[in-house]
């Protein structure tokens, strides 16, 4: 019984379901097979990254992260007040 399977029900909005169905069609597989292959592969990557304590970023995410570090945001007055309060000022 090593190949026993269980069901997983997922609710999607109409737009999302249309994209999933189209992606499955492009791969010439059923929607279930498409979701299974994509979701399980992504879940494995995320679990492995968590176990290795590594954050994996796509090149676009790496660029966005680097830009965020280069362009620190200005604190709001409420954030500045909270910082002063936490420092005991």
UniProtKB/TrEMBL annotation:
<dbReference type="GO" id="GO:0006355">
    <property type="term" value="P:regulation of DNA-templated transcription"/>
</dbReference>
<dbReference type="Pfam" id="PF08681">
    <property type="entry name" value="TacA1"/>
</dbReference>
<dbReference type="InterPro" id="IPR014795">
    <property type="entry name" value="TacA_1-like"/>
</dbReference>
<comment type="similarity">
    <text>Belongs to the TacA antitoxin family.</text>
</comment>
<keyword id="KW-1277">Toxin-antitoxin system</keyword>
<dbReference type="InterPro" id="IPR010985">
    <property type="entry name" value="Ribbon_hlx_hlx"/>
</dbReference>
<protein>
    <recommendedName>
        <fullName>DUF1778 domain-containing protein</fullName>
    </recommendedName>
</protein>
